[in-house]
Structure formats: structure tokens, C-alpha cells
Amino acid sequence: MDSPVWVYLLGLAGMGIYGTRIVVQWYMSERSHRVETPEIYWVMSSIGAVVLYIYGWLRKDFSIIFGESLSYYIYMWNMSIMGLYKKVPKVVIVVQAVFPLVILALISHDFPSFVDSFLHNEDVPPKLLWFGIAGQFTYEIRSVYQLVYSMRRRESVLPLGHWLLAVAGSVMIIAYGLIRHDWVLVIGQFAVVFSIRNIMIYFSYKRKQRKRE
Fold it and tell me: Which residues contact 144 (CB under 8 A, 6 or more apart)?
């Protein structure tokens, strides 16, 4: 399905925000020689999610909307536990929390039309759609893993499993994007390189810890 150039630019902006958050996180991790979890990572995650929600809607791509829905409120949880919401007006928090519900309301308003345009999109065959959803699920489930891990430690942490799922999901999303000729999805996964690097930093740090012991 062809879309106006500005729609692709919007998608690239969202992917750019997502990618930049990992570049910043990676840079801080390289400096400290351990995997860091900076506050800006979650702020940029939330902004990128909003942009990609809109992009997925404009592209009539349910796999994108599904993927963003899995992690949206997890980003908010991490921002909350790090105390970031103490620094912003309450109206910002309310708007952020309500945004996905607005999308849901729009879908519910004319559900048959939604099914026809999103789930029965002739440009995205059912098997390809489910593959895209599986890729998004694999990529975004890393946030659920991160949430459970962090809740147990009562702090925001980006554990090894987070990065392993990110790499697996990125590979699937790249394949989906190539098949669908959606270069926004393909280019947007450039951050997989930094996910791999975080895995390497993690094991390097663990080896140093064992030597100290």
C-alpha cells in the first residue's frame, strides 16, 4: 500500500527517536563498562511509541499498533519508578495515559471498518500479518520481561533477556519490513547493532566480576 511521503517521514521520525534512545544508552554503557539504564531512555521510548502509534494507524498496519500496545504502559511504569513524573505537569501524565485509550475508542467506534482495513488489508496477507505480529510481539515482550525483572529488584533495569529478545524481534521485523517493502521498519531496526553490543558489554562485565571474586 502506497502512502504519502510525509507518512513515511513520520514513521522514520518515530524510529529515529527509538534508535537514538539506544544510541544514548549504549554510549553511557560504553563509558561505564556496564549496561546502564538512563532516564532519557524511557522518555524517548514514550515519545517514540506515540509517533509509531500514529504511523501504524496511518499505514493501517495492525502489527505496529499491537507491538506498541504491549510496552506503552511499561514505559510509563519505568518513568514513574525513576521519579520522572515529579518533574512534569500532571496534564502531561494524563494525556500520555489516555492516548492509547483514544486509539482504542476510535477503533471501537467503527469496529467492522477497522477489521476490514487493518485485519483484512489486501496489501498484507494473513500469514504475513501474523508474522509481523509475531515479530512485534517478540520485540516488545522484552519490555514485559524487563518489567517483571525490575519489579523484583524494585528499580528500573535493562537485563540481558531484554537485549536477547530485542535482537530476535529485530531480525523478524526486518524480514517483515523487507517482504512488505516497508523501508521505515527495516531502517528503524538499525539499533539491533547496539542491542548486540549491550549483550557483549553485559558478558564482559560479568567476566570482570568473576575475576574480582
Answer: 70, 71, 74
